[in-house]
Design the sequence.
């Protein structure tokens, strides 16, 4: 039986899933429901494993981790992002990496739309005011006919683009890989920033996309624009975002991701009334959760049986 380590199921999602009992039947599983916290603890947990089933992106698989774990053959990542894995070092040490592409696309797309409505209609503020026996009026924005700019046209970007179009928005799109979509008309990125009433970010985090949206981009945006980010927090320059929100450079933001997670107590963004915040939960619905965890487990069996489904490294 292969030895598989789950080093970081915290908060626990795998243990309660339908995929977990089957995993334990077919493998020797070292399971941990706390975060490693340090590189040393992560190495200690996974040092004897052939396979790691990685749940949380806070566990960082660095060159030092790979060097210290010579038995490791595969990291199966639950989720799409692999920015917490040094893919070059993984390859150097002969470790394959897989992920679960597209499995949460519908869930995250719907969550992005929910954030858009919450910001445009100021739902949290209206709810709080109503509970205080206030009766505010006239502060919501209608989205029909507005322009929605989608940055990134992978599985999630495509779902959100369809949802935005379904409520009557004019959707324009930019992608880093236009040749992959020969039938889609893309716009220039500067045009997207200048003309969009809503800008929604759906990129992978990489050295190329870190701080991709910064002061120069906010300067191009409309004062009434709303920024949505359900991708990765570090794609948006956090200081530039704060400045844009507090100076009226843009009107609001809906954020499910942050440069530092969990969001620290009394973080400046938590003090702003024109921001709606959620705790990186866009892809965590029961449906997406079960499908994604099952895919992460299936990726292990595929690898051990010589198939390379969903390999990213």
Sequence:
């Amino acid at each position: 039986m292969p030895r598989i380590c789950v080093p970081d199921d915290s908060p626990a999602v795998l243990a309660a899933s339908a995929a977990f009992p089957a995993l334990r039947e077919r493998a020797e599983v070292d399971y941990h429901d706390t975060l490693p916290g340090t590189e040393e603890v992560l190495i200690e947990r996974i040092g004897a494993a052939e396979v790691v089933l990685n749940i949380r992106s806070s566990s960082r698989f660095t060159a030092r981790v790979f060097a210290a774990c010579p038995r490791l053959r595969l990291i199966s990542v639950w989720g799409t992002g692999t920015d917490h894995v040094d893919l070059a070092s993984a390859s150097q040490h002969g470790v394959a990496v897989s992920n679960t592409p597209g499995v949460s696309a519908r869930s995250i797309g719907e969550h992005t739309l929910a954030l858009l409505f919450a910001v445009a209609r100021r739902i949290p503020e209206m709810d709080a005011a109503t509970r205080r026996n206030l009766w505010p009026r006239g502060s919501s924005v209608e989205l029909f006919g507005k322009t929605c700019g989608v940055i990134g046209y992978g599985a999630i970007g495509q779902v959100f683009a369809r949802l935005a179009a379904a409520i009557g928005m004019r959707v324009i799109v930019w992608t880093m890989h236009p040749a992959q979509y020969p039938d889609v008309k893309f716009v220039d990125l500067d045009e997207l920033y200048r003309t969009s009433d809503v800008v929604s970010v759906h990129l992978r985090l990489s050295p190329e996309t870190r701080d991709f949206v910064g002061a120069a981009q906010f300067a191009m945006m409309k004062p009434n624009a709303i920024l949505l980010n359900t991708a990765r927090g570090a794609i948006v320059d956090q200081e530039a975002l704060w400045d844009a929100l507090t100076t009226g450079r843009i009107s609001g933001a809906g954020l499910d991701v942050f440069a530092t997670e969990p969001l620290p107590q009394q973080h400046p963004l938590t003090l702003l009334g024109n921001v709606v915040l959620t705790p990186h939960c866009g892809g965590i619905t029961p449906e997406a959760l079960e499908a994604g965890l099952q895919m992460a487990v299936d990726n292990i069996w595929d690898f051990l049986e010589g198939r390379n489904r969903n390999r990213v490294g």
Observations:
- DSSP finds eleven helices and eleven strands in the chain.
